Amino acid sequence: xxxxxxxxxxxxxxxxxxxxxxxxxxxxxxxxxxxxxxxxxxxxxxxxxxxxxxxxxxxxxxxxxxxxxxxxxxxxxxxxxxxxxxxxxxxxxxxxxxxxxxxxxxxxxxxxxxxxxxxxxxxxxxxxxxxxxxxxxxxxxxxxxxxxxxxxxxxxxxxxxxxxxxxxxxxxxxxxxxxxxxxxxxxxxxxxxxxxxxxxxxxxxxxxxxxxxxxxxxxxxxxxxxxxxxxxxxxxxxxxxxxxxxxxxxxxxxxx
Length: 256
Description:
- The protein is mainly beta and 256 residues long.
- It has helices at 154-159, 214-217, 222-226, and strands spanning 18-27, 34-39, 45-50, 62-71, 80-91, 100-101, 112-125, 132-139, 142-149, 165-172, 189-191, 199-202, 236-241, 245-249.
- The strands form three sheets. The protein has a five-stranded mixed β-barrel. It has a five-stranded mixed barrel with strand order 7-8-9-11-10.
């Protein structure tokens, strides 16, 4: 039967503790060396690391038997289990969840699988770890970040959805706001899978004529401009970084 990973203690004196558990995959690993979320009997989502060569064949909803070891890794966490063997037992579709508007999101007491509704206003690569990226979801004047693994064409696929209203289903971990020692987080964050796991409620606009021109908003302060869902600009590109970040100079010699 499933176990509560919170009861699995960290290794002491350099010795690792091996254990087994049965759980359902909530958010599968995306590469050979990856973190993934499982759901256990108490309904809490737990994080596991794997270097197992067959882990990419695991799908959300799979019920698996995992042989793991407590193993300290540098994620700001005291310890995190490392899966050494994963075997598929069965598959059950994960239940549909009622979507919570971003403006009504509050950190849960423990890591949970949730669905959040909002508009994608930005997509960007992690400044520190290029293997991760972020969606910025906005609704009702509130924002939150959704973290995704930056593999394959994920960054471009998510970027093509800017302006779309979506339901994103993933994992919110309240501890994530405090575990990282090398950075601080401004938004509540959740973890999501690939772009095809999003439910598109309203597609991104094809006609951008109604989007305000950045030059017409000048000289509003950056905070005011940043609060707008979308803006457009025309000019000469001075620099590009992260694939979707631009420094632009318009005809009036203003730099955006």
